[in-house]
Amino acid sequence: MKNIQFPDNKKFIFTIIDDTDDAYLETIKPVYDLLHENGLRTTKTVWVYPVRDPERSKGDSLQRPEYKEHILDLQKKGFEIALHNVGSGDFERPEIIEGLDTFEKIFGHKPSHHVNHSYNPDNIYCGSKRFSFPMNWIVKKMYSQYDSFFGEIKGSKHFWGDLHKNDIKYSRNYEIDQLNTFGKNPYMPYKDKVYDEFANYWYSSTFASNQWMFNQRVNKKTIDQLEKEGGICILYTHLGYYHKNGKIDEGFKKAIEYLGTKKTGWYIPVNEVLDFLMEKKIENGVPEYIPFWFKKRLELHSLITRIKYRYFVKKDDYHFKLSEEYNDNAAIK
Fold it and tell me: In CATH, what number is assigned to the domain containing residue 207?
């Protein structure tokens, strides 16, 4: 599906899926103020409950009143609020049900968009289960501790697959190593028969989990290229990292301000992007299910992307969180 016609003379799409790790009110609000001032409406994931595994994760939850009010304000401004599990840590089915109900009470609807979080045992189709053979075997060898997930396992105390199937329309999967996400995966949003029992539609995202990677990916040159291609970028990152030492990261600030000058850009949340692509798929007769061999290539591309930034380029979150830049900022919090 090429040469998509966007409405209102728009020529490209740029949006962000923001992983809520490290997001505190004091540091995340200036980042979202910048996005709003420049006309970008993106997707913010949230936790309902406070962090239970502080040795691994940190950040605000909806239990903090001031933070909840900020998230509600973002919703009023047109940002999408999505789920990053009900919290960080070990949560069992009754708590997950209560968390989904709390989300609905706060925002007026159940979450329709979910992103798995780190090592949560209630993750859905996570770890090596994201891949087929032989990629799943490689993932098991590379990330031996990243494989204890039970969200879709009936009988598990962490099971909520039925709720995920009923409420969650879109889930994130494979990482893309280029700004034009759609250029690498023109089937999204797509279904996958392997995961049909407890999931609906899947999408890919451009891998840029921190400002090191963001500033490499998003700049005047690459934005102009995305416009030229008529591309669609769904960029995955942690905006909680971007406010450091009392200031917003300069590279991020320049890129967002440049996007703000690009009136040909369509800056809408991820769910709106995917709804738009769904309509185009139907119009153009694109298969709802991802083809077998295309999925294999996408899996390989995603795995190579992870290996590249972990072992060669060394800019993924493993390396970023070892840096003075991250730890200085963390100390300030």
Answer: 3.20.20
